[in-house]
Amino acid sequence: MMKRHRLDPRSRTGRSQAPLIALAVIAFVVFGGGVLQFGVQRALGMAGAAVLNATADGLLESRVDHRLRVVDLEIDEQVLDSLQENLPYSGTEWKKAMLLDNGIHYPVSFRYRGYGAIHHIGNKKSFRLKMKRGAAFGPYERMNFLNPKSFNMINVHLSYWIAARMGVAVPYNDMVFVRINGKDHGVMHACEQVDADYERNRHLSAGDVPMYKGDFAPTNVRDSVQHGPLWRSADNWQYLGKADSIDARRKLLGLVAMINAKDVPWQQRRDSLEKIIEVDAFLRFAAAMKVLETRHIDNYHNQLLVLSPRTGKFYPVLWDPILLFAPADEPLYPMYDALSFWLMHDPEWRWKRDRYIEEALHALQDDSLAYRYLDEVVERIEPSVHADRNKYGVLSMAGQDVDRYSVLHWAYSTEQLRKQMAAHWSGLRAELEAGDIQVKREMNNVLIAGTGVPPVELTLTGDSLQVEANSWGKDYRVDVIGSDEHAVRLRIFPWTAQNVKGSSYNDRQRYELQPWNVRLRMSGGRLSDAKATTYFHHGQETAR
Amino acid sequence: MARKRRGSGLLRWLLVLGLPVGLLFALFNTGWYERVDQWPLGITAGEVAVYAGVFDLRNEVGPTEKGELWTITTGQHTGKKKRKKLSDADWRAALFSGEGYSDSVEVRRMAEVDGGWEIRFPKDNYFKAQRRLLLVPKNGTTERANEAIAMAKYLKLAAPERTAVRAEIDGNRSEFIAEEFIDAIFLDKRGYSDAALFTQGFSSLLPEHWRPDTDGDSALAEEIIAKEHAIISGSGSASDNIDVEAAAAWLLLCEAEGRRDAIMDEATYAYDRSTGRIVPLYRPQHGSDAWRSDGEPVVNLFSALISRADFREHMAKAKTGLMEKWPTATFSDPEWLSRALPDAHNPVHAEEEAAAVPFGNTLADIAARIGCTVSGDTLNFVRGKYRIEDDVITPPGTTVILGKGTRWFIAAGKRVEVNGTLVVNGTGPNPVFIRPADDAPYVGVAVNGVPESRCSMVGLQMSGGSSADGMLNFRNTDVTMIKCILSGAEGTLVSVQRGSVDVSGCAFMGAKGDGMRLVNATGKVEACNFQRSTGQATGDGLVVSGGKLEVRDAAFNDLVGTGLLVTSGAEVSAERITASNCATGVAAVDGAALELRQATITRNRVGLRGMRTQQHRKGGSITLHACTLEGNGKERELDEVSRVVEAGE
């Protein structure tokens, strides 16, 4: 009786439960459909995110005092509709819009940007503004407003910050809260569109400088353009700006030729590279790539080269890094492109890169600089994240699964980012410090053997010592870095790294450290003591 | 009786209603209510303001409105670009009137302040000696900013003047603070006539601010960067590179106001060329920019200064004075500055990179490189030829002595900078030569004086420099020059900035720039020849900018500019001078006073000139005592604020 009563749709109880049952059925069908279409894991992820977005975010106050810059944009709704017709291809035409800042209306041009689904699926679409140099974002004339790629929203911003403090050239970028036509568009990552005015914007030069962009073809023609590896031909680089390109083109051709040349003695290649690129800037860049552990900059895209008018050499600008966006088994010396293949080839350059890494880890992790900055950004962004009802992200390993996510995703992802940073940097330091050394004395010869990251510093004490040094050996190089009557200090670079996949650059190549073995011959004097230590102080051995 | 009662009732009603209303009108139109800070019986200021809005009829002025009334009517954009691309932040024409002034001006909205305006007055018609003014809306932070300005003035820190005004802009009346614009005129009024403005910020997130913005003058930017590097590296005395008192005051004020933005965003500085020092300027905060990240600063001059004990002493002293005057002021410790990020552009291990630097600049290095001898802190050059292939910059306190017969040949584009004293001991038969090593010019020889330093040049013959600041440039040192011949420079031949001069029997010829330029110097110049400009010359003979000078028996001939030019409030007495075949014989400009005795001014295009170069300056004054003026194209050319006085008039 009771049971029948419950099911009777005419009864009050039955009537109140009918919608719930219907909802459950619909949910089951939809979810079941989702399961059929996406598989259990993806469907669960997406459904869970949708539920959390509706519940957890729904409890939060949407009117908040933003601590981020608020970007107010006004654009005709019909124009927006026409741009959204067939994204990403339909969004690349510039349209008129207005930017409201401090009570002033600035005329700007608006277009959508980005090829990946994260940029154009969902309601938070990435866009670009073009404006006058003296407008609200001056001196920058083109600004990208990007849907953050990760749930924590700050991954890319933090990457730029870390790289900048390592001395790498980066674009201006910050987190902002965007409103379009009075409606909240949400938290976005604002980033300068790097162009030939990069140096002018930084008061480094009066006008445009030669700049090359190594990237995929523009969105509207990308599918129809064949795109080869950047360092295979100078033609794969796009020249930006109005500066005279003759010298820049000649240098780029030379650089490409030097990267691809076969059977060139290393010393000659090294000297040639040093004449065309700012090696120190590229080593800082390589160090940042390792500290960030990104694989989003490669032989095909996201590369920018500026020809410095001061040195006449190229230096790189970091573009679109994603923190911790690389496989877990990434080697200590990865090759992210054909140029890095040669940069990591030289033991001295590797050492310099390693020192930049070590210096960065000291500041970022030991002095907690990165965590402190992370905390500050989180504090600034938090109210805006709460107000953002438009959080769209990739919810599964499939890049096209862009859907709403919740504030809980954001909080969890932020915490994970903190933990993963700590884990990655601890692991990186352990890699740098791993290894051991042995020092042996055989008559007037000294034998040093070991594993790990070079170089080795060897201090020999005795009387009137003469060492056969300052020569390039086949497997090592020795330099005297200090000497007096009773001691000689040597720096030894064992030639330890081997390219594990052949002699020229291919994807996923790496240099791997090999055990090293160095024999030094004393050509004069009386040796009493030999002490070896490595730069990263992981081992020290003395032979008497 | 009943009618009487009705009549008196009406009167009562009129009295009951009218008397309080009348009293209220009387009360609010006397204006004394404005002086009451605290109202009794829980009456709030807001309630008083509402009543005042109704009952205070004085000139239709609101209850709290103060200051002059300015009227601005805006018109069309004045920019050359298409109007559709222009915003309110671009200049537009406007009609401005206020306090006896009415003219067409240009206005634009302030980009960083909601409701703020910037006004640019015509070049030939300044308003209250201002070319540009800011109109900042009065708000809750106004009082705090005014107090900060007062503190800045107390600490002798250059700060803009502010005054309350009412402005009616396109019919909308509102209260503003009119604020002096920080520009060259601002500096001029504060005695920095030879200074340039620049802005700079040190936030790690805003790399576009790291390099000094000198409005495109890259040479100046490099000079400032060199000064900043000297401060950061701790080389030499900080006071040689920055006005330490001003820096301490500036930092203290930033702390008192909680203005991290001053360092993290962009601040305004002057670079005083005459002293070679950076001078921080105080600028009130306009926009809130609360969205800006606190972040960490990159290494900067202030983080370096704060780590120095002597600088902290300066700050403590300034703070004590400030606390006495403003006991309620609170200061936080700028410890956050000490967390500055290291200079990312420095090599990882400076000592290793330093080892790779080919040439050091210790006295021993310099001596080994050039071939002179060292004795204590003195570099001695004896008779002989010395080739200078690289820049020579001596350590502070060095004395460089060039003995008779010394010949320096300086390579193209190189310079010698003596941080101490330069002594040249040439003689008639054995002069000291400084010449270019190649066909191309070298930069020059600069002397940055130290306290008590006195440079002496006797028998120097120098040519072929290119520095615009002077082929031979002295800063903050006393200079004696006897029987020297200076010729053939791409810029100015000799300049002296602050110090005393005693110049006699010297010849200055064939320069493209000025012959001799004295900035804020005192002393005398006698029996000297200033002669003939060469090439695309633009220069004058003797330029005296500020300071006091006596000129005797000097000749100025064949110059494309002015023979003797006194400017920027200088006081010059010239006796028995001749000026002939010059574009202008003598000129007094911008508040300068020139007294001429027995001077002969002949065959110049203009004999005497008096003028001011900017509206806020005074004109020039020339007094003549028994002078001869003949054969000039035009005897005198004076603007309305300059004058020539014949003695005895």
Structural overview:
The complex is a heterodimer of chains A (544) and B (649). With 544 residues, chain A is an alpha+beta fold. Chain A contains 14 helices and 23 strands. In chain A, the strands form five sheets. In chain A, strands 1-2-3-4-5-7-6 form a seven-stranded mixed β-barrel. In chain A, strands 15, 16, 17, 18, 19, 22 and 23 form a seven-stranded antiparallel sheet that branches. A four-stranded antiparallel sheet of chain A has the order 9-8-10-11. In chain A, strand 15 (437-442) and strand 16 form a beta hairpin. In chain A, helix 10 crosses helix 12 (347-366). The relative contact order of chain A is 0.11. With 649 residues, chain B is α/β, with parallel strands linked by helices. Helix content of chain B is 20%, strand content 35%. Chain B has eleven helices and 42 strands. In chain B, the strands form four sheets. Chain B has a 21-stranded mixed sheet that branches. In chain B, a hairpin with a 2-residue loop joins strand 2 and strand 3. In chain B, helix 3 packs antiparallel against helix 6 (244-257) and helix 6 crosses helix 9. The longest helix of chain B has 29 residues, at 2-30. The A-B interface holds A 66-70, 101-107, 132, 134-136, 138-139, 161, 164-168, 170, 172, 174, 176, 201-204, 206, 280, 352, 355-356, 359, 363, 369, 372-373, 376-377, 380 and B 84-90, 109-115, 204-208, 210-214, 216, 218, 221, 287, 290-291, 293-296, 341-342, 344-345, 347-349.
Question: Top keywords for this entry?
Answer:
heterodimer, A: alpha+beta, seven-stranded mixed β-barrel, 14 helices, 34% helix, B: 649 residues, alpha/beta, eleven-stranded parallel sheet, 42 strands
Largest interface pair: A-B, 45 and 41 residues
Please work out how many helical segments of chain A DSSP would assign. 14
Using the CA coordinates, give the radius of gyration of chain A: 29 Å
Estimate what percentage of residues of chain A fall within beta strands.
Answer: 25-35%
